[in-house]
Structure formats: C-alpha cells, structure tokens
Write a structure and sequence with these properties.
four-stranded parallel sheet; 13 helices; 2 domains; Aspartate Aminotransferase, domain 1; single chain; 393 residues; globular; Aspartate Aminotransferase, domain 2; 10% strand
Length: 393
C-alpha cells in the first residue's frame, strides 16, 4: 500500500452541519455573509491579542489572490520590482506578475531557508527594489521586528507570504502585513480560501473592495454605492468555505498540539535512523505551531537520489518541494530578474519532503524511518520505541 505524502485534515460533515444550517437559514451564501464575518472576527481576535497596534483583516477566495490583491492595494507604480525568494512555491512569483509587477528573485539564508531583512538590504544596495515579499517557508515564521526596522529604514513595504504559517506567523511589531492560506492541505483548512491581515492604514479596506470587483459599498465614501472605483476581481470567500473554516478554527488548538507531537516523534525517528549520517533541518527562532510538512536536507544529492529510489521501491511518496527553483523556471525567465542565489541552489540539491499527516500511525512513521536507514546505510540502528498507532487521529 502506498504511503501518501500528505492527507488533508478537514472537519467531518456532522461537525459542519450546524454552520451549514445557519447558512441555509440566513439564505446568504456569499457577499460577506454572517459566517464570513464571524470567521474574520475570530481570526482577528487571535492576531490582535499578539499585536501592539490595531489590525485589519479580510478573507479572500484563496491566498494567491490574497497576495495579488495585497500588492495591488499598495498602489505601487506599474512594473515595480518586488523581491521574492528563489526557494518558494510558484504562486509567490505569479501573484507579483498578475499584480502588474516584476519579480526579483533573491537568495535565502542557508540555515533558516528564509529571505531575511539582511538579504533584502543587500538587494536594495544592488539596485531598485520597490517592495519585498518574503515567504514563511514551510511554515517557519519571520521575526517581524527585523522587517519593521527594514520598512522604517528604507520606506519599502513588506508583505509576508505566510501561506503555511497560521499559528506561527504573528504581526507582533508596529508594522506588518501577511497573507495566509486556508487550502485543504493547510493546518487551518477551509477547503479553499485565505485571508490578509495588516497594520497598514487603509490596506485591508482596499483589499476587501478589490475582492468585490472594486465596487464601492461604503455610503460615506463620497461616491455612489455601486460605483466602480478600482479595477478588482471576484475574490470573496463563500459562506460554504467560511463554515469549514469556522469548524476548523474550533478544533485548531487541539489539532495543532497533535501535529507538533507527531512531527517531533517522526523527526526523532529519522535522526536515529540516519545515524551516523546527519540530517539537516530548517533552523528557526520559533518552532512551527502546527506543522503540515516534513522537509529535510539529506547529507548529499546522491543520498537524496538513493532515498528516492528506496522510497519508490517501498511505495512511499516523497517530493522535492519548491523545485525547480524559481530562477530555473523558463516561464518566469523573461519576466524576472535573478540575483545570485548560492544558498538556495545548495538547498535544492538535497532537500526532500517525506510523508507527514494527521492519522499517520506509528507503523507508518517507522516505515519512513526504515527507508531512511536503508538509504543512508545506518545498519543496525535501533528504532525508537513507540506503540503501534499511538498517534493515529
């Protein structure tokens, strides 16, 4: 039986039913309905509790549109240069292009795998940068104090692509903007969706307007209600997705704790299996609150290829996450500027994603560990003691 790479963890139909019944009773299924507003209120309460300043928040149909509209709401001149890491999902770059701007592909830190303020300052010194779009890679959070100082020193706006970082990435500095994903594979799933949260004055109101085609809905705005004031799109979250999001939020803390426990257990198994070879893990100041992926650097490119062969033979799915790098994507080549990215290139030579998901039994975890043991040649390493299925969910 094939061991999958990941399995979505969405609320069961019976858990959704009370929210769906409320939606049906209200007879409103989109256009900023009561469930969407309740969901936004619950999310904003979590972020506001960790922020020193007032925040705004709005939902979107998905995080890719959230990135595009957040960049649009910055009102940058057309064809502005937006700094993004070369090591990220393609949507980070395509959102920049669809907002009418040009990606500038930069390196990442060798240990954290993140585009840092220090790297951004170096890029600014080398040429024009009009905005920065760092990524919370694999859910690893950014320290917002550093980005606040960067914005204050340079005047360049920063938007964090925090797609996989709900519960980990906070706006705990005087300035900050972030976009989160609610895709089915994320730790707070709505099936599909996202949200934008920001301390930047007016940005959330502009994003919300852009999600509704750019139409004015504010009677006090000085223009007629229904007037098109911005060129937007239809990026509103539906009440159906808000229902799933609310049910997921109800149980998020419990599921997050389980994810952390399972992730730590599997990581320990792999470290033991790899002995005497060393696995290299992403370094971060704060751990991911609710991991959804398990990504590790193998000792060498040859070790990764050997592990991939072993896993294929044993029907275990693996993936080279975020590869090829953005600076190796022909579709982006004519539309981007590529800065030197030696750290990202090195990471890409041996980075491997292994199975991890809620519902993974102890036997599944040991199956992955045995594959690592076989690939890295650690003969006779003792497996971690753990009861079969102790982490099944």
């Amino acid at each position: 039986m094939t061991l999958p790479l990941l399995v979505p963890d969405l609320p069961a139909p019976e858990v959704l039913m009370p929210y769906l019944q409320r939606m049906h009773a209200a007879r409103q299924y989109s256009n900023f309905g009561p469930l969407v507003c309740e969901f936004e209120t619950g999310l904003n309460a979590r972020f506001s509790a960790r922020s020193p300043v007032s925040l705004g928040l709005t939902t979107v149909a998905n995080a890719t549109l959230g990135l595009e509209l957040a960049l649009t709401a910055l009102d940058l001149p057309p064809h502005s240069r937006v700094l993004v890491p070369a090591l990220t999902f393609v949507a980070t770059a395509t959102a920049v292009l669809r907002a009418g701007h040009l990606p500038v592909l930069a390196d990442v830190d060798a240990q954290s795998w993140l585009l840092t303020p220090e790297i951004a300052r170096q890029a600014v010194a080398q040429g024009a940068v009009d905005a920065v779009l760092p990524v919370a890679t694999f859910g690893a959070p950014h320290a917002m104090a550093g980005w606040h100082e960067f914005e204050q020193d340079t005047g360049i706006p920063v938007v964090i692509d925090a797609a996989a970082a709900f519960g980990s990435q906070w706006l705990d500095a005087p300035t900050g903007t972030a976009v989160f994903s609610l895709h089915a594979t994320k730790c707070l799933p709505a099936g599909e969706g996202g949200f934008v949260v920001s301390s930047r004055p007016g940005l959330i109101a502009r994003v919300r307007q852009l999600t509704n085609f750019g139409i004015n809905l504010n009677p006090a705005a000085g223009v007629p209600v229904g007037m098109l004031v911005r060129i937007g799109t239809n990026a509103k979250m539906s009440e159906y997705h808000a229902a799933v999001g609310l049910a997921s939020l109800d149980r998020w803390d419990e599921r997050a704790a389980l994810r952390r426990s399972m992730h730590a257990d599997l990581r320990a198994r792999l470290d033991a299996a790899a002995t005497p070879a060393l696995l290299r893990w992403q370094e971060m100041a704060e751990p991911v609150a609710a991991p959804t992926l398990l990504c590790v650097r193998l000792p060498s490119a040859q070790d990764r290829e050997r592990l991939e062969r072993v896993c294929a033979e044993r029907h275990i799915m693996v993936r080279r996450w975020y590869q090829p790098l953005l600076n190796a994507m022909p579709a982006l080549e004519k539309h981007s500027t590529c800065l030197p990215a030696p750290a990202a290139v090195k990471i890409a030579t041996d980075l491997c994603g292994l199975p991890f998901y809620l519902g993974m039994a102890g036997g599944d975890a040991e199956r992955v560990a045995e594959a690592v043991r076989a690939a890295l040649g650690a003969k006779g390493a003792a497996p971690l003691v753990g009861s079969e299925g102790q982490h099944s969910a």
